[in-house]
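User: My instructor asked us to take a sequence, write out its structure as tokens, and then describe one feature of it. I'm not sure where to start. Here is the sequence I was given:
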Amino acid sequence: MRQPIISPEQNYSKGLSQIRITAMNQPDKLEQLRQQLLDSYKNRALIYYHIYDELARILGPDQAEEILKRAIYRRGQEREREYARFAPNNLAAVKETFLAHLPDDGRLFEPEILTDTPDALDIKFHRCPLREAWVEAGLPDELVARLCRIAAEVDYGLFREAGFGFFADTWQPGGEGCCCLHIRPGGA
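Assistant: Let's start with the prediction itself. The structure tokens for your sequence are:
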């Protein structure tokens, strides 16, 4: 059981001197927050899977995938304003903003910039907590690949609606790391 940060003693007559403060040291707290963040991503991954699984039972796998893609694309659309100001061709600003918004300074995704020119921005993720959760849950590779395609729709909605060209190479069985995002100037 977790100890509260501030725990009052039962004897209140002794006043504030009896309140003891037990604080975690900063590195421990940081690790705890990192684990909670990772756990929340993995929880989201399993929610995606369970929604997909229920839809696939009723509608079949292809229709379930299409429905989830549309819904997740819409979430990307909701975030496009952050990037629309850089459209149609300021890829340097897109890179800076995108990397700055990756949680925990990118540790969860381990991004690598493969191409960084005025005409192309390619970002390879060497980790993905969503994919890791699906693998840990024992899902077959083909299903993990399908779920990666579904999850990538958030980026399609984000970048395309912001006015950029975009496509993603999502993880495939036998592949290294995870997705590779390809962002291009608008209309490219």
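For the description part of your assignment, you could build on this observation: Confidence is low (pLDDT under 50) at residues 1-23. Try explaining in your own words what that tells you about the chain.
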